[in-house]
């Protein structure tokens, strides 16, 4: 069989299950509005939670950074790619997390996927057991597979189950690895309980706060601030392509851990550093997150979240036969569980017809039978924007019910 025949058979099987993915080209726009084929769509799908990608100050800082530093960094960080802008970003993050992680130091990466890969593969050696939460992001799952450690999975948010597993472990080093905010469900990991287990069993807690950084906590520092956590056992991963509105990621941890990553994280050592202009602009993004703009956007997010959640609950109650449901989401990620793959794609198409972009998420990203609309809010969504989504969903629900 030729490779192409082999792949075409696989592609046909994917299509038959309504699971075929394809790229959509946006012509212009930043969250929450995008133009596709000449039509402006109101988006409920971006992870640009504070709407910072659209801030003129960020575009200006990028331009200023490019004038000062040029285009790319030209080399990996340990060769010549580490600029003063990279260092200023890492220093700011270390200061931000010092109240939560004693002796904190930070190290930058080009993406969150890379940061997760680095921390889990570098720390997960043959002496280590990784305790991995069931709903962890794909990058953490892939990282654990690449590590030389033993992997033990624990059930979603199951602190008691994890306790039993930790108590039975004989590994020299134990790493608990979890998302802080689950990307497809919007709920929070039970971090205080996990940290208490880490203290009790001499384990370390790797927290991927991709969806909490910038969003949660009074100053937007994320889940650790939101929950008031502090421990040298915390190893924090944050992404800078979501609420920070740019690109990149970081690990903040005890200085010894960061020093070791610098020696051992192969994907850090053997990969070109991010463009210094992006790092320069991140300093502007941090000032916005830290200042009145960030505070106002976070307050608006909380208000829109309540409006959306109340509206979705009322919608579900009006149409119980559709079997739609909410998750325990406590963040700007507010999914609507629909169930079937074809149903969710039909719903997403109906919303798009009404001028709204809301992605249908299907297996294997989520469990079979739990296909969903992943609705995400942006700090610049207005009350009228959320109403528009709720009205369009009501129309779609009524027509699905008539069709059933
Ligand atoms: N962790 C989580 C929980 C994520 O949702 C994502 C991105 N979707 C990542 C890590 C990867 O971050 P990045 O997009 O910066 O690679």
Automatic annotation (TrEMBL):
Keywords: Biotin biosynthesis, Pyridoxal phosphate, Transferase. Pathway: Cofactor biosynthesis; biotin biosynthesis. The modification N6-(pyridoxal phosphate)lysine is found at residue 242. It is an enzyme of class 2 (transferase). The gene is bioF. Belongs to the class-II pyridoxal-phosphate-dependent aminotransferase family. BioF subfamily. It comes from the Bacteria. GO terms for molecular function: 8-amino-7-oxononanoate synthase activity; pyridoxal phosphate binding. This is 8-amino-7-oxononanoate synthase. GO terms for biological process: biotin biosynthetic process. Pyridoxal 5'-phosphate binds at residues 112-113, 183, 211, 239. Residues 41-390 form the Aminotransferase class I/classII large domain. Catalyzes the decarboxylative condensation of pimeloyl-[acyl-carrier protein] and L-alanine to produce 8-amino-7-oxononanoate (AON), [acyl-carrier protein], and carbon dioxide. It holds the Pfam family Aminotran_1_2. InterPro entries: Aminotransferase_I/II_large (IPR004839), AON_synthase_class-II (IPR050087), AONS_Proteobacteria (IPR022834), PyrdxlP-dep_Trfase (IPR015424), PyrdxlP-dep_Trfase_major (IPR015421), PyrdxlP-dep_Trfase_small (IPR015422). It catalyses: 6-carboxyhexanoyl-[ACP] + L-alanine + H(+) = (8S)-8-amino-7-oxononanoate + holo-[ACP] + CO2. Homodimer. The keyword Methyltransferase does not apply. The keyword Transferase applies.
């Amino acid at each position: 069989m030729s490779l192409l025949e082999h792949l075409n058979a696989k592609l046909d099987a994917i299509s038959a299950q309504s699971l075929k993915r394809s790229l959509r080209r946006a012509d212009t726009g930043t969250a929450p509005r995008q133009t596709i084929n000449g039509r402006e769509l109101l988006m409920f799908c971006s992870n640009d939670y504070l709407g910072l990608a659209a801030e003129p100050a960020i575009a200006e800082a990028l331009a200023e950074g490019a004038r000062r530093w040029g285009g790319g960094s030209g080399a990996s960080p340990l060769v010549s790619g580490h600029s003063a802008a990279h260092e200023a970003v890492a220093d700011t993050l270390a200061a931000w997390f010092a109240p939560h992680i004693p002796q904190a130091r930070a190290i930058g990466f080009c993406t969150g996927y890379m940061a997760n890969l680095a921390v889990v593969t570098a720390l997960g050696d043959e002496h280590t057991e990784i305790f991995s939460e069931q709903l962890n992001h794909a990058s953490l799952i892939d990282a654990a597979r690449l590590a030389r450690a033993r992997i033990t999975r624990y059930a979603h948010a199951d602190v008691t189950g994890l306790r039993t597993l930790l108590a039975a472990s004989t590994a020299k080093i134990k790493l608990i690895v979890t998302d802080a905010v689950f990307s497809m469900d919007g709920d929070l990991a039970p971090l205080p309980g996990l940290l208490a287990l880490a203290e009790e069993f001499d384990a370390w807690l790797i927290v991927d706060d991709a969806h909490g950084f910038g969003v949660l906590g009074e100053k937007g520092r994320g889940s650790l601030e939101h929950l008031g956590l502090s421990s040298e056992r915390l190893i924090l991963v944050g992404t800078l392509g979501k609420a920070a509105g740019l690109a990149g990621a970081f690990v903040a941890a005890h200085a010894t851990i960061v020093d070791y990553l610098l020696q051992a994280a192969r994907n850090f050592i053997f990969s070109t550093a991010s463009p210094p202009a992006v790092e320069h602009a991140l300093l502007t993004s941090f000032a916005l997150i830290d200042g009145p703009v960030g505070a106002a956007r976070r307050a608006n997010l909380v208000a829109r979240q309540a409006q959306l959640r109340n509206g979705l609950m009322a919608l579900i109650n009006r149409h119980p036969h559709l079997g739609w449901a909410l998750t325990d989401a406590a963040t700007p990620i507010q999914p609507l569980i629909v169930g079937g793959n074809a149903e969710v794609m039909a719903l997403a198409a109906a919303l798009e017809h009404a001028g709204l972009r809301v992605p249908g998420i299907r297996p294997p990203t989520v469990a079979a039978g739990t296909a969903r609309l992943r609705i995400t809010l942006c700090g610049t969504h207005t009350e009228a924007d959320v109403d528009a989504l709720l009205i369009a969903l009501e129309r779609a629900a009524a027509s699905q019910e008539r069709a059933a």
